[in-house]
Amino acid sequence: MNTTKKIPIVRKELLLPFIIITSLFALWGIANDLTNPMVSAFKKVMPELSNVQASLVQFAFYFGYFFMALPAALFIRKYSYKSGILLGLSLYAIGAFLFFPAAANQEFNYFLISLWIITCGLAFLETTSNPLILSLGDKETATQRLNLAQAFNPIGSLTGMIIAQVFIIGALRSDDYTTEAYNALTSEELGAIRENDLSIISIPYIALGVLVLIIMSIIIFTKIPKTAAEDKMGLSESFKKLFSNKNYKHGVIAQAFYVGAQIMCWTYIFQYVDNLNATFGWELTATYYNVAAMVLFLVGRWIGTALMKSINPSKILMLFGIGGVICSVGAILLPGMAGLISLVGISVFMSIMFPTIYGIALKDMGDEAKIGSAGLVMAIVGGALMPVLQGSILDMGGSGFSDVAILGFIPEVKFSFILPLICLAVVAHYGYATYKTSK
């Protein structure tokens, strides 16, 4: 008999801390999607940067997650969830405010350091908030509760996208010139444009730092319930239990593949659209389709969370994984707009994957969930590694949208989405394997 319908996702006495902690999910969503367009922004403002140098923006961002996740887990294990959240918010704010001296000195490396510090803070927040949400209520509704909290993450991501497009990309003076006209400007004119544009880049981050301080002040005066997970066991015992837990180890692998698929689909949709424009003479704007994908991602997460009231989370993960694979096949094989719609549609099926994998992998854990959370956050590094492989496929023809075909008829930009297909198949298999054992 399924009793999860009778159990509230969040009990009334835990509703306030749940709402406050859930706000953090939107907060790191803003940072993620405010930072994604910065690769192209810095390339425009600092044309002397190579593409590899500009891409260090993403490397600094994702490396912060990998670097700080385990120290964050050890910190909250020694102290408390609340201490971890406050330290994470402090690092977040410090990194955001460091954009001011970075802009004043016009030094790209300072921006990279600022982004790295922000992400170290985000690693603390993710390592802390995810297992905390799981523990704020009954075990039977833990995965559904985490999906509900994670549903606010894409709201933050959409906010970050809009801020980046309207207040940064759309406001850059360096984007108003052709390459020839820009190179023809005097050194004084170039200096004034660079100073203006770097200031524009820094302002949203400084404002974000102020918002973080406001939220941190609220959390300081909020009582975070002490949970059963706060009873400490030996560190060696925690690691031993984790390494012997197949469900957890496979969950970390599935998480790395999922994050890789997400970043590839949301990054290389621009090259996919460029290929369509070059092939059909269209003038599609990739940003609009990226925003559409994010909206579908948000809708999919709400739908998935509702379905978990009556359907096993592992089964939903399996079905959504299969749906993502089917859409990936469509993105590769279907011509024109049908292929693009398939690519955008992948986001519906990716929507529930991160929190569902997280909840399944940490299911029935006690204190080792704190260390286990670190492994699942470190798996975010898949978002830095997988896109490099896809980029190598894109370069087969010398560009992201050339006429070079693979297997005689598939352009390399479309064929490159075989990598997200494989990643989503791994996630579907994890759902299937854990569903079999949960029956």
From TrEMBL:
Xref: SUPFAM superfamilies: MFS general substrate transporter
Membrane topology per record: Multi-pass membrane protein
UniProt KW Transmembrane keyword: yes
Gene3D superfamilies in the cross-refs: MFS general substrate transporter like domains
Location in or out of the cell: Cell inner membrane
Keywords in alphabetical order: Cell membrane, Membrane, Transmembrane, Transmembrane helix
Residues annotated as transmembrane: 14-31, 51-76, 83-102, 146-172, 200-222, 252-273, 285-304, 316-334, 340-362, 374-393, 413-433
The keyword Nucleotidyltransferase is annotated on this UniProt entry: no
Protein name, per record: L-fucose permease
